[in-house]
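Subject: Sanity check before I submit

Could someone independently write out the structure tokens for this chain? I want to compare against mine line by line before I put it in a report. The sequence has 509 residues.
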Amino acid sequence: MLDPKGRNRSPGGLTSGYVTSISLDSGVPAGLQVDAIVIGVVPGEAGPRPAPGAEGIDEALNGGLASALTALGATGKAGEITKLPTLGALPAPVVVAAGLGEDAGPEELRRAAGAALRALAGSARAAVALPVASAADAEAVALGALLGNYAFGVYRTGEQKSLVEQIVLTGADGHDDAVARARTLAAAVTLVRDLVNTPPSDLSPEDFADVAVRVAGDAGLDIEVLDEKALVEGGYGGIAGVGQGSVNPPRLVRLAYTHPEAAKTLALVGKGITFDSGGLSLKPAEAMDWMKSDMGGAAAVLGALQAIAELGPKVNVVGYLALAENMPSGTAQRPSDVLRIYGGTTVEVLNTDAEGRLVLADALVRSGEDGPDLIVDIATLTGAQLVALGTRTAGVMANDDDVREKVVDAAGRAGEAAWGMPLPAELRKGLDSAVADIANISGERWGGMLTAGVFLKEFVPDGVRWAHLDIAGPSFHKGEAYGYTPKGGTGAATRTLVQIAEDLAAGTL
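---
Independent answer below. Compare away.
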């Protein structure tokens, strides 16, 4: 269909918003009428052996499961997926054995479930009989299955490889709340993945703001959107400056979730560069083809607010989406221009490709007006993050060592890799400007991720605890899918932000 601007759109709009149906079944897995059954296997001295939950399957196969898997080359190591036919021994024609490795925890269960569901694409109904010994295990299996069963097909034509239509989770009796939480988190991550995967031609700052309005309406969130005129009049020089080179004007979106019993307030600030060409400091072509993902931080904030509104933690949460498109043109900002950030601080722009910190600066200062107990900003901020930590681990910096370590811990419990990094005071000198209060880059090449964090720290309100997450690598996966992580947008840090909100509500952060 065509949207009001004449562009091709799927009937669902910008995002699919699709999360597979998942239900619990207390029946014996071996007796279920499904297209396939997913079981767990672990390494053994004589080859792979069934994990708890698969006993009935082994019995139906006359105790031959281990020998059949061995014959097919399976070992039970984590990440391994092996399919074998049941030849009529079970109502399900196929068993999918997912390797769990030794001492599998929630993350191993998530990855095994995700990989198995992806291997079953096209099935109508699949049962998942991975080991569930607790509510945490039930949530992990359900979430992994839902996240692994993802595909972004909005722009594909013709027949597509469909997702599993219904997931049946066994062995999780009494864990309905855990499975419901998994469904909520999966819906939030799916929203973020869809946004990151959407081409910039269909996701301008205005389009993104429109999606936020829709999400806010559905979730019961308060929302305010500042357009380009309001940004200039309000003194948001960072967002306005970055966006002035594009025909698609910038936006600042403020979302708010409030709880009547909340004692604390969390502010989430997301970088939302809907496409980053680098501006006049133009990126090389090979570094530009995935820059549609440069709004992953803002997407994570939006997804997290959607989930928080449904989960209902006793904390107030305010989210800011700093949205702009960074393009070169006759109206674009120039290297050596000086911008005035919201609140008055002046910044000399020495490199227009260091634009994310400029839009975040406005939003960080503005978030201080909400009286937050904690501010967390999240951004696909620096290529230096990939150099330092690779493509799967986010960098965490903070103005408080305890906050930094607790945010890293929250990420780990949410199932997302993160590593604490310092903010060396000596790096601040490299940001000195001859004409303004601060420059947006340093003349020193080294420690780029840390220098960006030092820059952002300048705009954090005095006395407020703050953490910065650099997700440049984790937000977009360019390789083949693994576990529950697809190729393309990953939804990185969405679950971490939800966990941070819950930790603040619980008084542990």
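---
OP: Matches mine. For the report I'm noting this point. The CA atoms of residues 252 and 322 lie 5 Å apart.
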